[in-house]
């Protein structure tokens, strides 16, 4: 429905588009939207037919303007409370993006500020355009950013760029966005949607066990406690499962027959 705060569009080629649908509020993260993001990613995790997800902002002004403090609930919503319990809903939403089994792409169509850009950082890939603007304003309003958020930035854009972003509170645009690795791809605004969807469809067309297994291992490598024995065993199991899969046989056969493979995720 068009009045939903999060629009879910399952498309052909095993791709799903999630649209943050608060254009009048520059798609800022309300409590309802945060809970919906978490709930939707948990549901999509059970649907193995979706093998790449794109997150974008509604309208053409902003990807996400950050956390909407004015939208904090004044009373408990039983449905939302059932989703988040006593946990931090924003971190739950971000973690559900990170832990989603398949790659997630942020299509940054416009402004991405504060927690809105952290949402993009939680995605596996980021695509920007000549209309993209990115900034982290905590220093301008007297906020010390949480440890877990700063860790995500350091892992994604490096220590130097994280320091510059948070110390200066600068808004970046144009080539500077790409030079600072704030996005992985930079295209014209006219090409943004088609490029992002083509990227998502290309990923979704690859062998599911290989893509999913690789993302899981990469996530294991970033755990705060380091790689434990059980994590190494899980990683080795994922490698073995792909090596013994029907998809590997299909990929080899398709290569020799010079045709597109038809992967089934098993």
Can you give me a brief rundown of this structure?
With 266 residues, this protein is of the alpha/beta class. 47% of the residues lie in helices and 16% in strands.
How many strand segments? 10
Spell the H/E element sequence: EEHEEHHEEHEEHHEHEHHHH
CATH topology tier name of the largest domain: 2-enoyl-CoA Hydratase, Chain A, domain 1
Please give the domain count: 2
Estimated radius of gyration? 19 Å
Given helix and strand content, the structural type is alpha/beta
Distance between the termini: 34 Å
Estimated share of beta-strand residues: 15-25%
- In CATH, what is the class of the largest domain? Alpha Beta
Described by the principal axes of the CA atoms, the overall outline is: globular
Describe the structure.
- This protein is of the alpha/beta class.
- It folds into two domains: 6-204, Alpha-Beta Complex (2-enoyl-CoA Hydratase, Chain A, domain 1); 208-257.
- The chain has eleven helices and ten strands.
- The chain has helices spanning 31-44, 78-84, 89-98, 115-122, 138-141, 147-168, 175-179, 192-204, 208-221, 229-243, 246-257; strands spanning 6-11, 15-20, 52-57, 62-64, 104-107, 111-113, 125-129, 133-135, 171-173, 185-187.
- It has a six-stranded mixed β-sheet with strand order 1-2-3-5-7-10, with helices on both faces. A four-stranded mixed β-sheet has the order 4-6-8-9.
- β1 and β2 form a beta hairpin.
- α1 packs parallel to α3 and α9 (208-221) packs antiparallel against α10.
- The chain is globular and about 55 Å long.
- The chain starts with 5 loop residues before the first strand and ends in a 9-residue tail after the last helix.
């Amino acid at each position: 429905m068009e009045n939903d705060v999060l629009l879910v569009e399952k498309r052909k080629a095993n791709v799903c588009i999630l649209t943050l649908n608060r254009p009048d509020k520059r798609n800022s993260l309300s409590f309802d939207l945060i809970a919906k993001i978490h709930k939707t990613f948990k549901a999509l995790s059970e649907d193995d037919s979706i093998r790449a997800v794109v997150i974008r902002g509604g309208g053409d002004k902003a990807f996400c303007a950050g956390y909407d403090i004015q939208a904090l609930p004044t009373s408990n919503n039983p449905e939302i409370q059932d989703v988040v319990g006593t946990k931090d809903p924003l971190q739950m939403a971000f973690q559900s993006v990170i832990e989603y089994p398949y790659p997630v792409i942020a299509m940054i169509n416009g402004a991405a500020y504060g927690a809105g850009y952290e949402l993009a950082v939680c995605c596996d890939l980021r695509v920007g355009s000549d209309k993209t603007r990115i900034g982290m304003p905590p220093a301008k309003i007297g906020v010390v950013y949480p440890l877990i958020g700063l860790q995500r930035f350091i892992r994604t854009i490096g220590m130097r760029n994280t320091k510059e972003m948070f110390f200066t509170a600068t808004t970046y645009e144009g080539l500077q966005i790409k030079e600072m690795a704030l996005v992985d791809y930079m295209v014209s605004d006219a090409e943004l949607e088609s490029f992002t969807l083509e990227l998502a469809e290309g990923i979704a067309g690859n062998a599911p066990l290989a893509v999913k297994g690789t993302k899981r291992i990469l996530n294991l490598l970033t755990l705060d406690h380091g790689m434990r024995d059980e994590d190494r065993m899980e990683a080795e199991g994922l490698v073995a499962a792909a090596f013994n899969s029907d998809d590997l046989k299909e990929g080899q056969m398709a290569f020799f027959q010079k045709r597109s493979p038809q992967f089934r995720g098993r």
